[in-house]
Write a structure and sequence with these properties.
The protein is α+β, with helices and mostly antiparallel strands and about 250 residues long. The protein has a domain of about 170 residues: 3-Layer(aba) Sandwich (L-fuculose-1-phosphate Aldolase), CATH 3.40.225. The protein has 8 helices and 9 strands. The strands form 2 sheets. The protein has a 7-stranded antiparallel sheet with strand order 4-3-2-1-5-7-6, sandwiched between helices. It has a two-stranded antiparallel ribbon with strand order 8-9. Strand 1 and strand 2 form a beta hairpin. Helix 2 packs parallel to helix 6. The two termini are about 25 Å apart. The chain binds zinc ion (ZN). The site of zinc ion has 4 residues, from loops. Zinc ion binds next to loops.
Length: about 250
């Protein structure tokens, strides 16, 4: 089977993480799923981003067996797989320990929606998971991390809020494709930074009025959406072809 296009995208999207200053060393990964063919393509564990190629990126089947590329996929593969199972409308997942977002995750705090930058991309606050119980940590830790993310979205729209903080750990975002998922990771980091600064300036800052939050989200993502800004709308930017809309 030929996964060359998706492999190219996943390699390029992984390299976006250091390029956008979201990761140090190899602290993060991008994974994507081809649902028709039943494969996940993901960064190999510990591999420097500059060494990543379409030949060594890991291609894994639904059983978790590597069928192409590096035999050692990211240890976070079970988290990606759990999200792909639980969120049927996503095509890609990004994980980082980006600094500001991870500060909120380590504080065990969700990020309130303080302004329209946030509301353009994430409807409502960015949630934070509960801590895993000792038996969940001792057991299948990565699968249980994925499960606790799904648990946080029970009854919520995972497409309207395409990201979460994992308590004491870091960030996961997702999207229709790798570009949207990376874009959401970049925006989430900026939102985390802005929210921290907002609280430092004014510890009793108010959350954005619900009517403004609704307006900003709906004008970009709702039926009859009419707002496209200079990120080319939904963040699906084809960097290989000059950065235009895909
Ligand atoms: Zn991590």
């Amino acid at each position: 089977m030929d996964f060359s296009r998706l492999k190219e995208d996943v390699v390029a999207a992984n390299k976006e993480l250091p390029a956008r200053n979201l990761v140090k060393y190899s602290w993060g990964n991008v994974g994507a799923i081809d649902r028709e063919r039943g494969v996940i393509i993901i960064k190999p564990v510990g591999m420097p981003y500059e060494e990543l190629t379409t030949d060594n990126i890991s291609v894994v089947d639904v059983a978790g067996d590597v069928i192409e590329g590096s035999p050692t996929p990211s240890v976070d593969l079970p988290i990606h797989a759990t999200l792909f199972e639980g969120f049927p409308d996503i095509g890609a997942v990004v994980h980082t320990h980006s600094t500001y977002a991870t500060m909120w995750a380590q504080a065990g705090m969700s990020i309130p929606c303080y302004g329209t930058t946030h509301a353009d991309y994430f409807y409502d606050s960015i949630p934070v998971t509960r801590n895993l119980a000792p038996d969940e940590v001792a057991g299948d830790f990565e699968r249980n991390t994925g499960a606790v993310i799904l648990e946080s979205f029970k009854g919520k729209d995972y497409l309207a809020t395409p990201g979460i903080l994992v308590a004491s750990h870091g960030v996961f975002t997702w999207g229709e494709d790798v570009w949207e998922a990376v874009h959401n990771a970049v925006v989430l980091e900026e939102i985390a930074k802005m929210a921290l600064g907002t609280l430092m300036l004014n510890p009793s800052a108010r959350e954005l009025d619900r009517c403004v939050m609704d307006k900003h989200y709906q004008r970009k993502h709702g039926p009859g959406a009419y707002f496209v800004n200079d990120d080319f709308g939904h963040g699906i930017v084809d960097v290989k072809n000059g950065g235009g809309l895909r």
